[in-house]
Amino acid sequence: MVAPALRLALHDAVLASRRLVIFTGAGLSTESGVPDFRTPGSPWTANKPIPFEAFIASAEARREAWRRKFTMDDSFAGAKPSPVHRLLADFVREGRAIGLVTQNIDGLHQQAGTPAEKLVELHGNGTYATCLDCGMRHELHVIRPVFEATGRAPRCEDCDGPVKSATISFGQRMPEAAMRQADRWSREADLFLVIGSSLVVHPAAQLPLVAKANGAALVIVNREQTPLDPAADLVVRGEIGEAFAGLSFQEPKDRGLAPSGL
Ligand code: NAD
Ligand code: ZN
């Protein structure tokens, strides 16, 4: 159970913030049915993403990467944004948050209505694919039937380059523009709110410290400890859905004077 005093402190911190930056990890999507990496028994253990170098090096690794990707996609097909995904989208739309940085690749922040220009996907997006040579976008619903019929990993019809899920694999270079934007928001934040990240994947896990060094308060919501808990101003331990359930973030309405004649 999330301690009521922690929920209250979380509520107060968000209400007091004027330049909120939200940072989310795989833990946010477990309540939508998308498994995270590090919780024991995760299906990602049997279907580990293939490191980038191996993907580049062999056709066999590319085939295996696509097989695992489609297996994992099937395990959470139809996942829908949770109430917290929707609440965070509201924070961004209403201007309460200046930006949302995610490590997630599941597309659920977009589905919840988070505006694209306020969303940075540090690890890319697994709902489509790109050619590694020319950058052309490829759709999974086109790739999959061909892959299943031929057993061959897809290649770009334009330049014959290898086509890969549009995620950032271990060993792959971070997307520069995304990192720059995330860094900029982290420096501008007055409150940096981490939700559902183990904070062990770098360089993403550096951002809370960048925010902190530039004057932000750091709040971490997670069911287990993270290496940055000692640096946090508030740690809300427990389930994410429960931490936010029933909290209202509407500003108190200025009721003004009753209209005359009433
Ligand atoms: P992680 O799996 O390392 O950590 C998730 C954290 O969330 C864990 O500490 C776990 O205890 C906690 N958690 C899980 N469910 C929770 C809940 N309901 N309430 C509170 N806490 C909960 O994930 P990460 O830190 O995001 O790093 C993993 C990497 O794997 C990322 O780079 C990400 O790109 C990728 N990944 C993404 C997805 C996704 O898009 N949904 C899923 C798995 C992995
Ligand atoms: Zn190409």
Q: Compute the number of helices.
A: 9
Overall outline: elongated
DSSP summary, beta strand count? 9
Strand order of the largest sheet: 3-2-1-7-8-9
Please give the largest β-sheet. Answer: 6 strands, parallel
Question: Percent helix among the residues?
Answer: 25-40%
Description of the molecule:
This protein is an alpha/beta fold. The chain contains nine helices and nine strands. It has helices at residues 4-16, 52-57, 59-75, 83-93, 108-111, 140-150, 176-188, 207-213, 240-244, and strands spanning 20-24, 97-102, 119-121, 124-131, 137-138, 163-167, 191-195, 217-222, 234-237. The chain has a six-stranded parallel sheet with strand order 3-2-1-7-8-9, sandwiched between helices. Helix 8 (207-213) links the parallel strand 7 and strand 8. The N and C termini lie far apart (47 Å). The protein binds nicotinamide-adenine-dinucleotide and zinc ion. Nicotinamide-adenine-dinucleotide binds at residues 25-27, 29-31, 34, 36-39, 44, 103-106, 123, 196-198, 201, 222-224, 239-240.
Describe how the helices and strands are arranged.
Elements: H1 4-16, E1 20-24, H2 52-57, H3 59-75, H4 83-93, E2 97-102, H5 108-111, E3 119-121, E4 124-131, E5 137-138, H6 140-150, E6 163-167, H7 176-188, E7 191-195, H8 207-213, E8 217-222, E9 234-237, H9 240-244
Bound molecules: nicotinamide-adenine-dinucleotide (NAD) and zinc ion.
